[in-house]
Amino acid sequence: MILAGVVLVLGFFSYQTHTEPQVRYNSLIHRLTYPTDLRVRYRIGDVDERFGLSHDEVKRLAHEAVMIWHDGTGRQWFVYDDSAKVSINLIYDERQMETTARQQIKQELDTLQQNHRRDSDNLARQRQALHDEFSRLQTELTAWQEQYNHTIHLINHTHDPNERQRLLGIEKQLRANQQALNAKIDAYQLSQDAFNQAVDDINHKAGHINHAIDHVNARLTPREFHKGQFDGHKIDIYEFENIDDLRLVLAHELGHALSIGHNDDPTALMYPYANEQDLHNFELKQADIDLLNERTLYR
C-alpha cells in the first residue's frame, strides 16, 4: 500500500514536471507540501555592494521583472520566498567593469558631441553675421564709389572756382571715408580668416568625434544575454547598463526559469541579444508567449 502511494506520488510529480517544467526548480519539501502550487519560488541572494543597489532595491526590481510575465500572460508564474531554492545574485566582476568603462566612454562622447553641436551653432551664427557684414560693406563700397566718381566728374567739368573748391572739399572727405571703409574691410577680412580657422578646427574635431563614435560602436555592439545566467539553481547577474536594463535582464533569466529558450524576435524579451527591446515600458511579445505555448498549455 505504501509502495503504491509512493509510485502514485512519483507518477504525479513526473507528469507535473512534464506539463509544468518550472516546478522542478522548487524544493522537494515545497512540492510535497503544496503539490498544486506551480509557481517558481525565488529569493534575493548575494548583492555585491559595488553595484550600488541595496537588497530591497534588487527585490523590488525582481518583482517588476516578475510582473512582466504575470501581466503578459494573465498568470502568476513566480512568488517571492525567503526560503526558496532559486536565488537571484548580483556578482561584480570584469564584465561590469567593462560596462562601466563603456558608459564612461559614452558619456565623454556625449559631451564631445554636445560641444560640437554648440560650436557648430556658433559658427552658423558667425557665418550669418559675416554674410550680413559683407553685404553692408558691399553696399557701402558701391555707394562710396558712385559718389566719388560723380564728385570727380563734377570737378573735371566745373568752371566755377567756388564750386570747384566746394567739390574738392567733398573729395577730401570721401578719401577720409575711404580710409575708414578700408579699415572696416580689413577688420572683416580678419574676422573671415578667424572664421575659416574655426571651421578647420571644428572639422578636425569632427574627425576625432567620428573616430570616437566608431570606437564606442565597436564596444556597444549588441551582445548575447551574457549579462546574466540561470543554471537551474540560481540566477547570477554580472552586468547591466542601468536600472531598466537590469529589470529586463532579470525578466529574461526568469524566462529561462520557466524552461523556455530563445526566440528570433529582436523586440522580444527572450531574444538572445539585448538590442531593440523597449527598456522603459517593456511588455511581453507574442514570440515570448509562443515559447510558453510550445512548452506547455498554461491557459
Automatic annotation (TrEMBL):
It comes from the Bacteria. It holds the Pfam family Peptidase_M10. One of its GO terms (biological process) is proteolysis. GO terms for cellular component: extracellular matrix. It comes from Moraxella lacunata. Residues 39-291 form the Peptidase M10 metallopeptidase domain. Residues 95-147 form a coiled coil. Keywords: Coiled coil, Hydrolase, Metal-binding, Protease, Zinc. Gene3D superfamilies: Collagenase (Catalytic Domain). This is Matrixin. One of its GO terms (molecular function) is zinc ion binding.
